[in-house]
Design brief:
The complex is a heterodimer of chains A (446) and B (275).
Chain A (H helix, E strand, L loop, with lengths): L2 H33 L4 H9 L1 H11 L4 H26 L3 H25 L6 H6 L13 H4 L2 H4 L4 H19 L1 H9 L1 H6 L4 H40 L5 H29 L8 H19 L5 H29 L4 E2 H8 L5 H13 L3 E4 L2 E4 L1 H23 L9 H8 L4 H10 L14
Antiparallel strand pairs in A: 1-3, 2-3
Chain B lengths: L26 E10 L2 E11 L4 E5 L6 H8 L7 E5 L5 H4 L3 E4 L13 H7 L2 H4 L7 H13 L15 H14 L4 E5 L7 H16 L3 E5 L6 H4 L2 E6 L1 E7 H4 L2 H8 L5 H14 L1
Parallel strand pairs in B: 3-7, 3-8, 5-6, 6-7
Antiparallel strand pairs in B: 1-2, 1-4, 8-9
The chains are: A mainly alpha (446), B alpha/beta (275).
Chain lengths: 446, 275
């Protein structure tokens, strides 16, 4: 094995795996927290675990991740229970009770840590808050075949095992209780009346939140856990309206953010000629935030850009139809109209930019043509205009006969409605107004 | 699908000693009091819902109509009192009870389709662990079709109008195939056509021997839509057939703004206990 690969396997692979699986756990849980509008629960728990970690450390005397994991989980679950208790007894909103609990727990953790420092025990607060991915490493043998042996793999750092185990555990839980979790996230009262005890599920879920937060500790640090809980789920929501797809997509985004984040943090600075790599956990969170930001703009349906485009298209379509209708009406009276007159007439509905764009698109598609100065409808244009005029005049008839408006009040309303009237609505409409020959102004309905 | 009411065993009912509560009634409430921050929201409610009728609960805002439903369904705790369904506690009757909450009670942004929401009505019959099967989805689709929304089955629920959302909730309750339904303002914010569609469905339920209890706001339609009415304002002002109790006098008592001595004493209790 080349020395590059050996270095990669021993120094980079363990942190990547740890970061990946702990971020995946957070993302899975995050889907439900975000949907339940409880995303800050992850943040609250991640702060509240601090005293658990310090106590576990003080009692066991080791930095073994197993002891730390147990201590942190116990503290996390206690804080979640306390949040519920305070919310119920104090009858305050969840946010307030979260704030109270996590700040007290965190303060307690800081006090304990100072106590530990006074006893000459080294516990670095920075590591707990920002993650210490870089300290996770593995010393595998040089030989590839040796590496794949079970006995060698079992020497992988504990953090890798903990994060994989938590991920597997959470995945199984979500698969087994998919139906129940969906029900309980969407409508807790219904869950109750259907005989599912929501508090059982709630406490299991909160425990899992604690596990995933604690497992993510080493990888992304307590402050950055919140990014992995919120970003992938929120990003995925922008791409789909289905819960299952959302969950799968959030995992996909997590994988991208983790790998890209690690590469950017660990390798990029060195490739760019800097001396030191930067905090990979921070980079992972930054990338997941960037993915979210990009999706806010670029997502196919809910993205800002897509909504702008579809509004733009709709407006163009409306103006195109207005131009066809206008020419049709003018031709009905055996007169002609010029391009400038069209622009002038339609100016009250839209901007010149849209009108000119719509005009050239009609010209290009052969729906209208220019003869000298006059604009006329082609045969195709005529076929396009007839249903529009029909809808318009049916609406005018409806507004006068059924709604009781004056004939001189109905043109603009009908003008707006005609663009959104499909075939089915047209049929209903002509049934209601009994298929008349002419509209209220005495014009023929084509 | 008429299920004859199953008479409860004597031992199930703690209300059997009161002759006014019959075990054939789908709902019997005895001396129910619900308090919020020490102040009673519902006070000493006695009520019996007659089998196979459409019942309206009417009363001013803050009268405790929604609270009454939620307390019956054990969604919120009662301070005291007994509630029985067919002469047995809620846990025994639960599978036969359907609930349509207010539309605002859920997050309509949730990534879920109309059909999936209706399918949730089947979850109670499925219980823990068991997955949704094709039969459940087919049945849910049938109920969605019954409320006229077959074409909208795969729509995300936020892309439905208010009236359509209300009908999705109704279809979900129908999917529970219950015998007693609690509906919290099923007509809120729906257009006239939807209102007619909903009332037709309620009539159909009644013709199948089911009992439907609705929180209702439009007093003018009470006589047309409902057989029975409960006039509620913290206490039951009157309850019975629409013909007998839906009178000017009772309505005045229910909606009249003047504080009674009981209101005053309840304020005093709240103040004393709260401080």
């Amino acid at each position: 094995m080349s020395s590059f690969w050996h270095e990669f396997v021993s120094l980079d692979l363990p942190p990547i795996l740890t970061a990946l699986f702990s971020s995946l756990s957070c993302a899975l849980i995050g889907n439900y927290l975000v949907l339940r509008r409880q995303s800050l629960m992850g943040d609250a728990i991640s702060h509240a675990v601090l005293p658990g970690i310090v106590l576990a450390f003080l009692i066991s005397g080791t930095r073994s991740s197993f002891a730390v994991f147990i201590g942190a989980s116990i503290a996390g679950i206690c804080s979640a229970l306390l949040i519920e208790v305070i919310r119920k007894i104090g009858q305050v909103e969840t946010g307030a009770s979260m704030g109270v609990v996590f700040s007290i727990f965190f303060a307690l953790g800081v006090l304990l840590m100072e106590q530990a420092a006074a006893n000459n025990i080294d516990l670095d607060a920075d590591c707990l808050l920002h993650g210490q991915l870089e300290t996770i490493f593995w010393l595998p043998p040089q030989n590839v075949f040796e590496i794949l042996r079970l006995s060698t793999l079992s020497q992988l750092p504990n953090e890798v095992f903990v994060s994989v185990a938590v991920f597997v555990f959470i995945s199984i839980f979500i698969i087994l209780f998919y139906k129940e979790l969906k029900l309980f996230s969407f409508d807790e009262a219904l869950a109750k009346t259907l005989g599912f005890n929501p508090s059982v599920l709630y406490y299991v879920f909160i425990s899992l939140t604690a596990f995933s937060v604690v497992a993510a500790f080493k990888a992304v640090g307590s402050i950055l856990v919140i990014a992995m809980i919120i970003c992938p789920a929120t990003t995925a929501r922008l791409f789909t309206d289905k819960l299952k797809t959302q969950i799968l997509l959030s995992m996909f985004f997590t994988i991208i953010a983790t790998i890209a984040g690690y590469v950017c943090g660990a390798f990029m600075p060195i490739w760019l000629g800097f001396e030191n790599s930067i905090n990979t956990a921070g980079m992972i969170s930054v990338i997941s935030g960037l993915l979210l930001l990009m999706s806010v703009f670029l997502a196919p349906r809910y993205g800002i850009l897509a909504q702008k485009i579809s509004r733009h298209r709709l407006q163009l379509q409306v103006i195109r139809e207005d131009i066809l209708g206008l020419i049709y009406r003018v031709e009905e009276t055996k007169k002609g109209i010029t391009k400038d007159e069209i622009v002038k007439t339609l100016r009250k509905f839209s901007s010149d930019y849209f009108i000119k764009n719509a005009y050239s698109s009609l010209l290009k598609n052969g729906l209208i043509s220019e003869r000298n100065d006059t604009v006329i409808l082609t045969e195709a244009g005529n076929i396009g205009a007839v249903p529009l005029l029909r809808k318009h005049r049916l609406w005018e008839t409806y507004l006068v006969n059924r709604v009781g408006l004056n004939p001189d009040h109905v043109h603009n309303t009908a003008e707006a409605l005609e663009h959104y009237t499909d075939q089915e609505l047209t049929e209903k409409l002509q049934e209601r107004v009994k298929n008349p020959e002419t509209d209220p102004h005495g014009k023929k309905i084509p | 699908m008429i299920h004859p009411p199953i008479p409860a065993k004597q031992s199930d009912s703690s209300l059997s000693k009161y002759p006014e509560h019959s075990a054939t009634n789908p709902l019997s409430v005895h001396a129910m009091t619900v308090a919020y921050h020490q102040k009673p929201v519902l006070w000493d409610i006695d009520y019996d819902a007659p089998l196979g009728s459409l019942i309206a609960i009417v009363g001013p805002n803050g009268a405790g109509k929604t609270t009454f439903m939620k307390a019956c369904l054990e969604i919120i705790p009662v301070a005291s009192g007994t509630i029985e369904f067919w002469g047995a506690p809620y846990a025994k009757g639960r599978a036969r009870i359907g609930y349509v909450p207010q539309r605002e009670s859920v997050d309509w942004d949730f990534p879920i389709s109309a059909l999936e929401v209706v399918t949730m009505g089947r979850y109670g019959k499925l219980g823990w662990f068991r997955r949704v099967k094709k039969e459940d989805r087919d049945l849910a689709f049938k109920f969605l079709d019954d409320v006229g929304l077959a074409d909208f089955a795969s729509r995300q629920i936020n892309q439905l109008s208010g009236g359509q959302q209300q009908r999705v909730f109704l279809a979900r309750a129908l999917a529970q195939e219950a015998e007693l339904y609690f509906m919290d303002e099923p007509f809120a914010g729906v257009d006239a056509a939807t209102e007619r569609a909903i009332i037709e469905i309620l009539q159909k339920l009644k013709n199948h021997g089911k009992t439907v209890i609705c929180v209702h706001h439009d007093l003018t339609t009470v006589p047309e839509y409902f057989d029975n009415v409960m006039l509620l304002n913290t206490r039951v002002i009157a309850a019975g057939s629409v013909k007998e109790v839906f009178t000017q006098e009772n309505l005045k008592k229910t909606y009249g703004g003047k504080l009674t001595l009981l209101d005053e004493v309840s304020e005093a209790i709240a103040k004393a206990k709260g401080s």
